[in-house]
Amino acid sequence: MITVKNNMFHLATANTSYIFYINESGIAEHLYYGKRLRNPEYDISALREKRLCPRVNETSLSPQDTTLQMTNLMSEFSTEDKGDYRTPSIAISYGKKKIRTLDLRFKSYSHFQGIERFSSPLVQAIGTDQNTCGIILEFVDAIACVKALFYYTLFDDSDVITRRVTIENIGSDPLILRSIYSLQLDLPEHDYDFITLNGAQLRERHPISRPLEQGIIINETRKGASSSESNPAVILKRHNSDECYMTNLIYSGSHREVAEVNQFGKTHILTGINDSTFEAELDPSTAFESPEALMLYSNMGLGDLADKMHHFVREHIQRGVWKNRLRPVSFNTWEALHFNFDEHGIITQIKAAAELGFELFVLDDGWFSVRNDGTTSLGDWTVNSLKIPSGISQISKECHRRGMLFGLWFEPEMVSPGTNLLKKHPDWLLGDPARKTHAVQRNQYFLDITREDCQDYLVTTIKQLIQNGSIDHIKWDMNRHLSDMYSVNPEIRSMGEYQHRYILALNRMQRAITSSFPNLSIENCASGGARFDLGMLSSGTSIWTSDSTDAVERLAIMKGTLMAYPLSVCGTCVSPSPNYATFRPVDLETRFDVALFGVLSYSLNLTKLSKAEKDAIKKQIEFYKQYRQLIQFGIFRCEEKDSITYFTASSPDRTTILVLYMQKLLKSNCEDDILRVPLADENYVYRVVRRDDSAPIWDIGKDVRDYKKEEEVYEVSGDTLKWAGIKLSTRYSGSGYNTGMRVMPDFSSRLYIIKKI
Ligand code: GLA
C-alpha cells in the first residue's frame, strides 16, 4: 500500500514501512525504514530531522537552503558537486567541459499497478496487476538536462520493496552517465554489522561480518559476472537486536555494494552496477535503465529475513513451469567420468541411474566436436560422433525410455581457439584485433554476444539441439571472466558500456530459449557458483552452487548461500571420496546427509559402486523424494557450535522437521550434546528418530567393544524440543565406551527425523 499525504510517501508492506518526503527544496529526504508504523502521517515532524543550524565545516545546497547539507542528509539518491561528499548514487558529466554538477529536484509522481516493465531485456521481479503496485518519482535538473525516474515496487505477499532508476538525457547534446546505483538506503545510525557473502571458486559465499565504523566498506566485483568473490546480497544486522536488512540486485554482471558511514554516524548503502567498470554515453532523448535492486527489513532476526527472501525469490524472481515444481534428483556425468566416456559407457550409466531411482540424467562437458579435454571445441556445438555415433537424440531416448529426463551441458558464451566457429567468424571473438593476444582463462575466450548475429547463431544452435535431441534440461556454464572488451557492435558507443550490454545479451538469449521451450529447465553454473544471483534465477530453475562437493566445505557455502537464496535453487552433489579438491575422505551417508539440503544430484561412476553402496544410494534417493517438498520449499536454519553444524529444514506447518548434525572434527573427551530445535512448534508432540542410514561400523580397537549403532528414539513435546532440547546419547571421544554411545569420527553426521504425532 502506498500513501501520499502532504508530500510524504509511505510505502507500506505487511510488516514494514519505508518513508520519505519531498522537502521544501524539492529534495527527497529519507525518513524511516523499519517495522511497519501504523500512522506515521499523524505527526511527520517527529520523523523529520531538525537541522536547526548548518554545521560549520559542511557545504550547503544553496544560500536559500543553508541547513540542507547533503552529505549529512538521509536521501533517496545522492549526486555530485552540490555538497554531498558521500559516494554518489548517480554521477554524470555533460558539455565540453565534462561538468559533473547534478542537482535533481522533484517534479512529479505517479502510481502504477502491476509491474513497470523494462524497455530492455533486463530481468526484473514479477507480479500481477492484483498483487503488485508501485510509484514512480520524477526529478529533473534543467541545466544538466537530466531527468531521473525512480521506480519503487511493492508486493502484497512480501515485505520486499524493489527499486530501480532510469536516467534520461532531455537535452540536445550527449550526456555521459558515470554511475547509476539502483538502490540507496540511508539510515540514521550505524550500529550494524555488515554481512557479505565472500570467497573464491570452491568456497563461494562464506558469510563475513564486520561492524560498521566511520568509513567505507565495498563489496564488489569487476569480473562481468556476479562472481564467487562477492555476492550482490548484503545484510545489515543491528547490534544486540533482531533488526536486520538485506539488499540484493537482480543482475548477473559486475556489481558494487557500498556501506559508508559518514562523519556524523549515518549509514549510506548503495547497490548497483559497479561504476568502476561502467560508463554510458546517452544521446539526446535516450535513457539508461539501471537493473532492479531490492531491500527487505525484518525485526525477527536473520532466520526470518532469509525466510522472507526465500519466499520472494520463489514467488517473484523465478518464473515458468518450474517455479514451484519439485526439482528432480539428477545424475551428472562430470565428477563420475569427466571427458572419458563413449556411447556405450553413457548408456551403461543411464541404465544404472534409472535403476537407482534418478529422475534426470545430465550429460556434462565432453559430448561435442573433439572435446576430450579443456583445450578445444567450445563453440562447435555438434555431437562428437566418434564418442556418440548414434547422436544426442539416442542418448535422450535411452533416458526417456527409462523414465528419466535428459539434460545436456553447454557453455554458449565461449569459444576455444582453432574451432570451426572461429575460422568462420574470426570477428566474433571478443577483443581488439589490433592486439596479437588476449587475456585467457581455462584455454578459452569470449564470443562477442552483444552482436546480434552471434547471439542469433547461438540461440538457433541451442534451440535446434534441444528440439532434435528432445532435451529437457540444460546446464548453462560460464567458466571465465571478461577481459579485452572491444566490440564492433555499432550500438556500443563506449566500451564502458560493454559489461552491461553483455548482461542484456545474456538475458535476451536465455529468455529466447525458455520462451520457445517453456518446459525446459536451466541449471546455471559458472565454474561452480560464480554467477549465483537473482538475474540468473530469473531465467533459470537452479544454480550449481559450487564445484566444491566436499561435505565439510559445503557447510559454510550452504550457510552463506541460504541466507539469501532458497534451497529449491541450490544444486548439491554427492561425489567420490576422497574429494578431488580437498582429499578429504567422507563416508557416503555423510556426503548424502549434507547434499540433502538442496537440489540433490550425484556424480559418481555408477559402474564402480559396490552392491552395498548402490543399495545405500537407492535408499537415500527414496528418502530424499519422501521429504523433498519440505527440503526444497521449506524453512531452513543453520546453527554452529564448536565443530558441530546443525542444518534444519522444516515444513512450513512445522509438522515435519529434518535436522542434520554434522561433526567436522571430533574433540577428545568432549562435552555432551543437546539437540535443540528452534523451529519446533510448541503445541505439538513430536517423535524423533535417527535416519536409518548405513553409516560404517567403526573399528576403533580394544576401547570400543560390542559396538552397535545407537538407536535414539524420543517422544517429546514441541516446547521441550525447542527450549530444553534432547540430551543426545554420549559421543565417544576417547574416554570409554558403552553400548549406545554415538561413535562418530571426524567428518561424520547424523540426520534426525522429527515428526508430529
Ligand atoms: C565447470 C562446472 C563443472 C563442470 C565443468 C565442465 O567447472 O562448474 O560443474 O560442468 O565446468 O567442464
Description:
The chain has 13 helices and 38 strands. Strands 6, 7, 8, 9, 11, 12, 14, 15, 19 and 20 form a ten-stranded antiparallel beta sheet that branches. A hairpin with a 5-residue loop joins strand 32 and strand 33. It is globular, with a radius of gyration of 28 Å. The model has no long low-confidence stretch (mean pLDDT 96). The structure holds alpha-D-galactopyranose. Alpha-D-galactopyranose binds next to loops.
Portion in beta strands: 25-35%
Q: How many strand segments?
A: 38
Largest sheet: 10 strands, antiparallel
Secondary structure category: alpha+beta
Cα radius of gyration in angstroms? 28 Å
Shape: globular
Bound small molecules, which ones? alpha-D-galactopyranose
Low-confidence stretches: none
How are the SSEs placed, and which strands pair?
Layout: E1 2-5, E2 8-12, E3 16-22, E4 28-35, H1 44-47, E5 90-94, E6 105-113, E7 132-141, E8 146-155, E9 161-169, E10 175-187, E11 192-200, E12 203-211, E13 215-220, E14 230-238, E15 244-250, E16 255-261, E17 267-273, E18 280-282, E19 287-289, E20 292-298, H2 301-317, E21 330-332, H3 334-337, H4 343-356, E22 360-363, H5 392-401, E23 405-410, E24 414-415, H6 420-424, E25 445-446, H7 452-469, E26 473-476, H8 498-516, E27 521-524, H9 534-539, E28 542-544, H10 553-561, E29 570-574, H11 588-595, E30 599-602, H12 611-633, E31 635-641, E32 644-650, E33 656-663, E34 674-675, E35 685-690, E36 713-717, H13 718-724, E37 726-727, E38 748-756
Parallel strand pairs: 21-22, 21-30, 22-23, 23-26, 26-27, 27-28, 28-29, 29-30
Antiparallel strand pairs: 1-2, 2-3, 3-4, 5-10, 6-7, 7-8, 8-9, 9-19, 9-20, 10-17, 10-18, 11-12, 11-14, 13-16, 14-15, 15-20, 16-17, 24-25, 31-32, 32-33, 33-38, 34-37, 35-36, 35-38
Helix pairs in contact: 7-8
